[in-house]
Each structure stands twice: as structure tokens, then as C-alpha cells.
Amino acid sequence: MACRISELVVEAADAERPAAFRSEVLGYVELCREDDGSIGIGPSGVGFGGPLPVLVLSPGEDPRPARARLRMDVTATDRDQDAESERLLALGAAPVDVGRTGERRRYVLADPEGNEFHLLPARPRTLPAAAPRR
Hints:
CATH architecture: Roll
CATH superfamily: 2,3-Dihydroxybiphenyl 1,2-Dioxygenase, domain 1
Order of helices and strands: EHEEEEHEEE
């Protein structure tokens, strides 16, 4: 195996409400909050890198036409991120320039039909203290 689905990213006008709702529905806990307002939720006691993908609710209303509200991000499992990027490009992925800059290293790519996804670096499997259930 060279990649696994590590994160499902769902765009939402307000990330807070769908994150709370989906946490209750799935029995997930909050794993992280990003500076951009994104909220990551996942199985309690597992965190990032577990057998199930993390769900990331990302606020925004991207003006690009026909932009999908769901994106499947992947993480390399048996090679480094640069080597996996080369493999995905050879398979037919294309780089996408979305004007992103920042510290978190990721590749924004598109599959052969133009659907965007990110090739993410491996994340540490550290977990925050579990939030109390409501």
C-alpha cells in the first residue's frame, strides 16, 4: 500500500455546527482546531494516523465554479511525501496552484478528472485530552 485516505474534508459555511453534529452522530471527538477555523474530529483514543479517516470540517465558500464540497486527502504509508508526489504525478495526477502558502507542507493535486485532493505529510498520533460528552 502506498497511500491511505487519511482525511475527508467537508466544506461548510460554519464548521462549528457540523463538527458538533457529526461528532455526536459518529461518536467522534475533537482532535484539532486550525487557525483557518477548520475543526478535525475522529475516533476517541486514536487520533490522526489510525485505521479510520479523520473528518475535517473546513469553513469557506470558495468561488471556483463546480468546486466539490468533499475532498479526500491522502497520506503516504510506505515512502516519504516527495517520493509519493512523484508516484502520483506519474499515475496521472496534476499539480494545482491554489495560491496557498504556509508552514504546513502539503501538495495540492488533481486526479485525471480534475478533482482536487491533498497529499499530506504524516501527522503525529498525539491525542488531546478527551472532551466531555454532552
